[in-house]
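Translate sequence into structure tokens.
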Amino acid sequence: MRTAEKKLFASLSQAKSANNKMLKQEKNEEIRATLRFFNSNITSQLKGLSFYVKPRVRRQTKTTVGEKAKLYVGVVPKKQKPKQKRTYKRQQRHQKKPRHEFSFDDFIALPMCFVKDFLGNEYLINSALYHYDEQFAVNRANNKTIDKVELFMNARNIRHHDNTVIASRKTQNEKLRFIY
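Result follows.
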């Protein structure tokens, strides 16, 4: 199928070149008009057939005797492209919500919690742990008891039994504050 189209394309291109030669030589205006009409008809047919014909590839020039063949042609850009500056998106500052102070009364009201002090010791507080009507906390590592007031003064963070933080502070000088 394609070979027939290629043959037709070749014969039409030859007819067009012959038509162009006749058009250049002809002096009569009526004959020139008919030649132009045939020329436009041939070009429209060639456009339709160009789909079946591969585009011509330029052949490489042959090297002269003694000259070495160039494998790659180096193309040097005329001017170096300017580097694009990176634009960084500015992050909006996270506004902190005012946190309420965690008081000793809130601390006593908790039925059960874990407390971590600034030394890294972890204590368990349970409202059922009473000794002579005073509550105390138990160190989880060595089971030693400590007074609840003293522990509150040294507490770094206070957590629920499921390890969610209730209140915390970064330094001993700060006050314990609720975490929401």
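Note: Strands lie at 112-117, 122-131, 134-139, 145-147, 155-159, 165-168, 177-178.
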